[in-house]
Write a structure and sequence with these properties.
The protein is 27% helix and 24% strand. With 783 residues, it is an alpha+beta fold. Among the domains are: 13-248, Heat Shock Protein 90 (2-Layer Sandwich); 270-397, no CATH class; 550-635, Sandwich (Immunoglobulin-like), CATH 2.60.40. The strands form ten sheets. Strands 1, 2, 3, 4, 5, 6, 7, 8 and 9 form a nine-stranded mixed beta sheet that branches. Helix 2 (27-41) packs parallel to helix 9. The chain is elongated. The termini are far apart.
């Protein structure tokens, strides 16, 4: 193809200026760029500043006495004619290296200029003195105009370009004067460096944008500069001092990254060498050394004793993975993006150093690494390592709770659940549990929500599967939920009764007194339950139990998408070692997401979407699992979730069974003490999360101070009732419910709280202050 080219490339000047400067949006970002430039200037291929002289000063001045506010960075590099000339070129690929063969940070020279162009209303300049000569260039003009973006010599070509000076001291004094700073006011380290080199550079700007009445919020500004990614390397290699209105900030010490106390009993840092080859999603491999042409990398992970995500001001900005090469920052990503939904990942952060990231993965502004195969594979590697550390922390954070105490609190909680119903809306909302051993519907006293209990045992209802219980060898199953056991009187009222379980062959299947069946070996046996109350006993019909020796499991379908709060069925076809098949065998189900609450899976393979995310689900028993898992995606649900019927229940983590899975719900230190997930809303249950820090504290002191625990327990019960009333009040209005200010919702909640809590607390006082046994609780609550 023939072409007659134009004389030069044409760029729209205003559009180009916006494109190369708009990523600078705040003063901390701009100051970090200035500091980064100072650090680069000090390197051996540039000013070659001695290690003991690698210092800088951040100079801040408020608007006062008719003089504008100012921000400047003073370093000891001494900008030369070559430096300020190169500074005047936008988007120069050799702005920092100037063609040097030394491996160092490569920039386009835009960061510091972009800050000077965008975030100052007055003049900005780079002013350098070195080897007896002065150079000064800068910007001036209306903000964000093309004219402002054209650099010039200050105050003129003759007086600003490579001017021979008569007195270095006079030049320094004149530069510091607008800040109200004398040479003697500078920190000793800065004075020594300037005197030793007889050189300095001042990058500064007048009238910073966004100030309130011209005042600089120094503490906030400095804190954000320190936490900025681009400042990290500078703080490691330079001593940076801050002066505000002529006075040293703080105790006059240089800025330092605040130390982060590592997680107890976990060695930190944790260093991993980055493998030479990493896999992609496609199965292909990508080299992390460009086929051996670059050095290898390493990942360094650190831990924090505090939840970094929750500590917004101090730790959350540092809760990230920083990407860098040996000499420069590439960018960062939050840990929540690298390892989403990973419990206890809030206590992990780190840095990955990989030379092969440069230059292909360096983006404008260096906020994030540029997407691509290497970053994709690297992120997968980082995610796995973060998860490894997070799992260790999660296991350490899990409180070891006394089982006897949990049993006692469980019994108290059951009585409190009955007590609280009389304070709920008369329609009730919940799973309709009929007391300690039932799941049938309640009957209530007229005019209130309190449960009416029968006294004389008349019927024992058991609802076994049509073909009996088929269960994989090695499984444990809660029979109460599986069989829907309920004991009632002649009027259908629930009766408090004890249950006794037995099997005809405990070698095949054993059962505990609380109704937990363990499938021990292949075979058949019969199961029965006996209900006893006030001398009356009722015996259920025998239930056939068959234990399968699972040979393999086939799951269908292969891919499932579930809307949040809805369910989907996965069918597990089991083949035993005799070749028999069935899709009715109870199995263990598990998935590979670190966040186990993304989905909840019942023993029959009914999957409920609980949190948005992806996972792979499999099933099996006796050490044999399905070879091919089911890929499950939980997606947002635009429709309103339907709440379970009956009265809500307050359940106890680490003790009560999750109605969705039939397994004990583990507590989570990172969840609230009164906890409800979408799947819990479907069952209308709430959890008293005894792993939450405040609940765990009260529980630990239960033995020595029972009143402390009972007061806490009672308060959470009241909180739950108030929230139920708020939900009921909101839902009953239906489509007529209008958007309102949060303050008005808060007033409504407080109104419910006052109305409900006064009466509940009056009735709960004997329970809270009493030191009796569990058997006394009901009498206390009935007073």
């Amino acid at each position: 193809m023939n072409i007659e080219r134009d004389a030069d490339i044409a760029f729209h000047r205003e559009g180009t200026l916006k494109a190369v400067t708009q990523w600078i949006a705040s003063h901390p970002e701009g100051i970090a760029e200035w500091l980064k430039n100072a650090r680069r200037q000090y390197q051996v291929d540039r000013a070659n500043v001695a290690l003991e002289h690698r210092v800088a000063g951040l100079l801040l001045k408020d608007q006062r006495d008719g003089e504008p506010a100012r921000i400047g960075v003073l370093d000891v590099g001494g900008a030369t004619l070559e430096d300020v000339t190169a500074w005047g070129v936008w988007q120069d690929p050799e702005a920092s290296s100037r063609g040097s063969a030394v491996e160092e940070e490569e920039t386009q020279g835009n960061g510091g200029k972009a800050y000077m162009y965008r975030l100052f209303e007055g003049a900005t300049r780079i002013f350098g003195v070195r080897d007896g000569r002065r150079n000064c260039r800068g910007f001036d003009g209306d903000p964000e105009t093309v004219e402002r973006g054209i650099p010039g010599w200050i105050p003129s070509l003759v007086e600003g370009r490579d001017v021979e000076i008569s007195s270095f001291t006079a030049e320094l004094k004149a530069a510091l004067l607008p800040y109200g700073v004398e040479f003697e006011d500078l920190p000793q380290e800065v004075r020594s460096a300037i005197q030793g080199r007889e050189a300095f550079t001042l990058v500064e700007g007048e009238n910073p944008t966004g100030l309130y009445k011209g005042k600089i919020r120094t503490e906030d500004l400095v804190a954000k500069v320190v936490r900025h990614d681009q400042a990290t390397l500078c703080l490691e290699q330079l001593d940076i001092f801050v002066l505000h209105n002529g006075r040293a900030v703080g105790d006059g010490s240089p800025l330092r990254l605040p130390p982060i106390t590592p997680y107890a009993d976990l060695d930190s840092p944790i260093v991993h060498e980055v493998p030479e080859l990493l896999p992609l999603d496609s199965g292909d491999m990508v080299s992390t050394t460009e086929g051996g042409q670059r050095e290898g990398g390493r990942l360094t992970l650190h831990t924090s004793s505090e939840n970094m995500q929750a500590a917004y001001k101090s730790l959350r900005p540092r809760w990230q993975i920083i990407y860098r090469t040996r000499f420069q920052m590439i960018g960062s990503k939050p840990v929540s993006e690298i390892a989403p939904g990973t419990p206890s990942a809030q206590y992990v952060y780190g840095t990955v150093e990989l030379p092969a990231l440069e230059p292909a993965y360096v983006e404008h502004g260096r906020r994030r690494p540029k997407p691509g195969p290497l970053v994709e594979a690297l992120d997968r590697f980082i995610c796995e390592r973060v998860r490894d550390v997070a799992r260790q922390i999660a296991s350490r954070r899990q409180q070891q709770l006394d089982q006897t105490a949990l049993d006692e609190v469980h019994a108290e909680n059951q009585r409190l659940n009955d007590f609280k119903n009389q304070f709920l809306p008369s329609s009730g909302d919940g799973n309709g549990g009929s007391g300690t051993e039932g799941t049938g519907p309640h009957k209530r006293k007229r005019g209130g929500g309190a449960v009416a209990w029968g006294t004389e045992l008349e019927t024992l209802d058991v609802s076994p599967p049509e073909d009996g219980i088929n269960v994989g060898r090695g499984m444990t199953v809660d029979l109460r939920g599986l069989l829907g056991v309920a004991v009632r009187d002649s009027e259908g009222l629930p009766v408090r009764a004890s249950l006794e379980w037995s099997t005809s062959d405990h070698h095949v299947a054993a059962v505990t007194k609380d109704g937990t069946l363990t499938a021990r070996e292949k075979g058949h046996c019969m199961l029965q339950v006996v209900a006893s109350s006030r001398g009356t006993k009722l015996v259920s019909d025998p239930i056939d139990v068959r234990v399968w020796n699972v040979d393999h499991v086939l799951l269908t379908p292969r891919v499932v998408e579930i809307r949040l709060g809805t369910r989907a069925q996965i069918v597990a076809e089991v083949t035993d070692d005799d070749g028999e098949r069935s899709a009715e065998v109870l199995l263990d189900w598990w998935h590979d997401a670190d966040d186990q609450l993304i989905v909840r899976v019942s023993r029959t393979g009914l999957v409920t979407g609980n949190r948005v995310g992806r996972t792979a689900i499999t099933a099996g028993a006796g050490g044999v699992g399905a070879r091919m898992p089911v890929e499950v995606s939980v997606v947002p649900n635009p429709e309103k979730l339907g709440q379970g019927s009956g009265f809500p229940k307050l359940l106890l983590t680490d003790r009560d069974l999750d109605p969705e899975t039939g397994e004990i719900r583990e507590g989570d230190p990172d969840q609230p003490p009164l906890w409800q997930e979408p799947v819990d809303y479907l069952h209308n249950v709430w959890w008293l999360n005894v792993q939450s820090p405040e609940a765990a504290f009260a529980f630990r002191h239960r033995t020595s101070d029972q009143m402390l625990w009972r007061a806490y327990h009672a308060q959470k019960l009241i909180d739950m009732v108030v929230l139920v009333w708020m939900t009921w009040d909101f839902n009953r209005k239906g489509e007529s419910q209008q958007r309102d200010y949060w303050a008005n919702h808060l007033v409504a909640m407080d109104t419910h709280r006052v109305r409900v809590s006064q009466d509940m607390w009056r009735r709960l006082q004997p329970f809270v202050s009493g030191m009796g046994s569990v058997d006394d609780v009901q009498e206390e609550l009935d007073q």
